[in-house]
Amino acid sequence: MAAYILRRVLLMIPTILGIMLISFTIIQFAPGGPVERIIAQLQGFDVGATSRFSGGGSEVGQGQGTQATIGAADASSKYRGAQGLDPKFVAELEKQFGFDKPAWERFLLMVKNYAMFDFGRSYFRDEKVIKLIGERLPVSISLGLWMTLISYLISIPLGIAKAVRDGGKFDAWTSNLIVVGNAVPSFLFAMLLIVLFCGGSFWQIFPLRGLVSENFSELSLPGKIGDYLWHITLPVLAMTLGAFATQTMLTKNSFLDEIRKQYVQTARMKGLTERRVLYGHVFRNAMLIVIAGFPGAFVHAFFTGSVLIETIFTIDGLGLLSFEAIVNRDYPVVFADLYIFAMLSLVVNLVSDLVYTWVDPRIDFETREV
């Protein structure tokens, strides 16, 4: 097992490099950029998520630094909205953001710094990126863990119950709920919960925004715990309602597939009770595919599902930070988030494989190629 873990860890290195290289290449051709954003702000243009500045992102991304001797016409052709600006000022902007270097040099420098977890400084927040991520990472992990834990606690027992009662009234009734949960996205659930329980047209029970109250530091330990749980109830509920449906059907189908196998019939013929057959023989084999889905469920909750939820409930987590960084073209934050996301995804997948061996000791990764 130690050799397998070592191979997987070593395989993470080219995987991370490949992800960063592809993302870095795509960014070079993306419209807009930090230089265009500064120019747009100076000229009073709209710099929201839908604003576009033709040609700016690709040219800046290629690292073709504007020299102080170029004419104003050249500068304006390179950056829309730069008419009337001093070319020396535009060149200084490029130097400030590091775009005066060729793309390959910037990529190699980024790889070197990221290997030492030096993500630089945010373009527009004037803070170290590692500090921004460190402040928001626990928030997103908290939401993701709660969502994954609750969805598994619901979906596994429910999936087993549906498999045992396949075709019955309970199976049909719960399937209707699962169809709704699978069809309606989590952000719509979030909006419905806000209307119902956050002082909209109905009840004022839960807070509308934030992860804790303003007086959180003044509360006692039980008060802090209660305040935290009070704030995360609706966000976690919205994420769970949108996630448990798929996991429930996966559990049900996995158990049904195992129940119909010959060894289950043999166990019944030996006189074992249904409970002993289900939890002594079927459970271990059926849970393998459920465990295999854990990395995807956690990654979805942590990286994808939390973005809109954090935005709707104004929770200052990593998802909201990533969204704002993409909109503002804050490339150090974007690439650092991507790097952290990729690292955590690979680690979670490795942990999932190790849990495989715990659930079923017959699995031996040592004898298999990575």
UniProtKB/TrEMBL annotation:
Protein name per the record: Microcin ABC transporter permease
SUPFAM superfamilies (UniProt xref): MetI-like (SSF161098)
Tagged with keyword Membrane: yes
Lineage: Bacteria, Pseudomonadati, Pseudomonadota, Alphaproteobacteria, Hyphomicrobiales
InterPro entries cross-referenced by the UniProt entry: MetI-like (IPR000515), MetI-like_sf (IPR035906)
UniProt entry keywords in alphabetical sequence: Cell membrane, Membrane, Transmembrane, Transmembrane helix, Transport
Localization per record: Cell membrane
The family this protein is said to belong to: Belongs to the binding-protein-dependent transport system permease family.
GO biological process: microcin transport; transmembrane transport
Domain ABC transmembrane type-1: 137-352
